[in-house]
Amino acid sequence: MSDTATYEKYSMTLEWEPEGGVYVVTVPELPGCQTHGSTLEEAIRQGRDALESWVDVAREMGRDVPSPRYFDLGPVDPTWSWEDDDDAAVDDRARMEPEPVAVR
C-alpha cells in the first residue's frame, strides 16, 4: 500500500441513487473507480478503499496513475458560519442552479 497522503489529494463525488437506495462514490480522476455504500459514512469508507486499491494495483502493474485534479470552487468567506446564516437564505441557495466548476 502506498503513502496515505497520496490518496488524500484525490476527489470523490457522492451521489444518492434512489433506485438502489445507496450513495454512489466516483473518483473522477481514476477511470472506472466507483463504489457505493448504504450510508454516507460507509460510502466514504468504500470510496477510500476503492481509491487505494485502484492506485495500488495500477502501480503494481506498472501503469500510469493520473494526478489528482483540483477544482476551483471560487472564493471562500472565512467569516461565514452556519450559526450566522438564516434558514431562508440556505433554502434560497439550495434552489439555485449550480455554477460550473473550473477544473485545473
Distance between the termini: 27 Å
Rg, rounded, reads 17 Å
CATH architecture of the largest domain: 2-Layer Sandwich
What top-tier CATH class of the largest domain fits best? Alpha Beta
Tally of contiguous helical segments = 3
- Contiguous uncertain segments of 5+ residues: none
Strand coverage percent: 15-25%
Give me the strand/helix succession.
HEEEHEHE
Structurally, the number of domains stands at 2
Q: Oligomerization state of this entry?
A: single chain
Task: Give a verbal description of the structure.
- There is one protein chain.
- The protein has 2 domains: 4-60, Double Stranded RNA Binding Domain (2-Layer Sandwich); 71-103, no CATH class.
- Helices cover 34% and strands 17% of the residues.
- It has 104 residues and is of the alpha+beta class.
- The chain contains 3 helices and 5 strands.
- The protein is globular.
Question: What is shown here, in short?
Answer:
The chain has helices spanning 4-8, 40-60, 87-95; strands at residues 13-17, 22-26, 34-37, 71-72, 102-103. The protein is α+β, with helices and mostly antiparallel strands and 104 residues long.
